[in-house]
């Protein structure tokens, strides 16, 4: 399956694949990771991104700014990663300091 993923990446990202680095993001729950998957990731020379387990306390969509950014990006289509990054930067630079203050004030307290 990972070989098919690699082929798909090469097909869709022809110009960007020159850097030859693939960051593979997977669940950190160890029982769900087979030895074959680990071996394949190693042989493909992919870099495995570690991340903390999902916290049910707060998901990314819980943040005030993220929901507004989703509305801003609704229906947008990007051909390159740089286009998406630039659009996010445009959104963030268009926000007032008060926008971020309101977002911080709406964070849940523990």
TrEMBL record:
One of its GO terms (molecular function) is nucleic acid binding. Coiled coil: none annotated. It comes from the Eukaryota. This is Histone-lysine N-methyltransferase SETMAR. It comes from Araneus ventricosus (Orbweaver spider).
């Amino acid at each position: 399956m990972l070989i098919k993923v690699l082929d798909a990446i090469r097909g869709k990202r022809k110009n960007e694949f020159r850097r030859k680095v693939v960051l593979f993001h997977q669940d950190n729950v160890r029982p769900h990771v087979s030895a074959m998957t680990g071996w394949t990731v190693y042989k493909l020379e992919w870099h495995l991104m570690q991340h903390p387990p999902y916290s049910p306390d707060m998901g990314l969509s819980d943040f005030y700014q993220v929901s507004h950014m989703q509305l801003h990006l609704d229906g947008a289509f990007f051909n390159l990663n740089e286009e998406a990054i630039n659009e996010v930067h445009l959104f963030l630079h268009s926000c007032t300091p008060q926008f971020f203050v309101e977002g911080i004030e709406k964070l849940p307290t523990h």
